[in-house]
Each structure stands twice: as structure tokens, then as C-alpha cells.
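Listing S7. Sequence submitted for prediction.
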Amino acid sequence: MPITPLHTHDASPRSHDAARVRPPLWHGTAFLIEALVLVAFLMAALAVVLSLFASARAEEARAARLSEAVTLAQNAAEAFAATDEPGSRVCQEAGAQTGDLYVVAVDVAAEERTAGTLYTATISVTAADTPEGADAAEGASGATNAESAVGGETLYTLDTARYVAASASREEAA
């Protein structure tokens, strides 16, 4: 009995195409679409993170300016409390952290009373936009003149008071 092959090979072109198996095209397309979606998501996340870093940097600069303004106002309040003859003054000072220029205006009002004198001071720290504006404000008297001469924004205002008894005020006058 002759042995017959189970599978015969046909040389026709149609049988050749049927024997070759092609992988479906959508497998590679799905991978590319998934990669593009992942890249788009990463770009969006990067944009959000960079935006947060930029706003944090701006907030840090604003906080440093406010911290310097508070320190300069406290220094002026201590000088007001320690001075024998308090008076209004305007001066230019540089911040310790940023080196920015500030105008510190101390507006003092005296109220005579029977037992002594009550001195009240309003201390305002204004950001000097330019060194020329700070120099012009230094010669001005009163906080409102300093603010208008500088043209910057008022960063911090502090109100304080000091009472000098009548006997001490008479000794200061003598």
C-alpha cells in the first residue's frame, strides 16, 4: 500500500497567500495610540507642576518682601520707643534678604494730657520702585508724602504709642 501524504503542496499563487499568516494591523496601532496618550498625559502633568513651581516662586518673593517690611517696621517702632524726643521722619533702608529698597515713614502725633504726653506713631513701610523715588521720599515729611513720592505699594503699617509722664517730660524739656 502506497503512502500518501496528508498535506499536498499546491504551487498556485492563491494557495501560497492562504498559507502565509499576516498579523493583524491593529496591534501596532493600539500601542502607538497608547504611547501618544501617555505622552500627552505626561506633558499636561509637567505643565501643571511647572505652573505650581512658578507660583511658588512668586509667593516666596512676596513673602520675603513682607518679612523685610515687618522687620523694618519693628526696628522703627523700637527706635520710636527708645528716643527721648520722638518726631516724624522718613528714611530709606535696604532689606536684609532681598536687598530691595524700602521707605520707612514714621508719622508721630503728640497729645498733651494733664499727667503727661501721649505720643502715637504710625509707621508705614513702602516698597521703593526706583532708587530715585526713595531718595526723593527721604526728604519728605509725613507718611502720605513718602507714599506719594515713592509711588510704590505700602507693604506694612504699624501703629504704636508711647506715654511720657509729666515729670519726665519736664525733665526732657529742661
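Caption to Listing S7: primary sequence and predicted C-alpha cells for the chain studied. The first helix runs from residue 13 to 19. Residues 141-146 have pLDDT under 50 and may be disordered.
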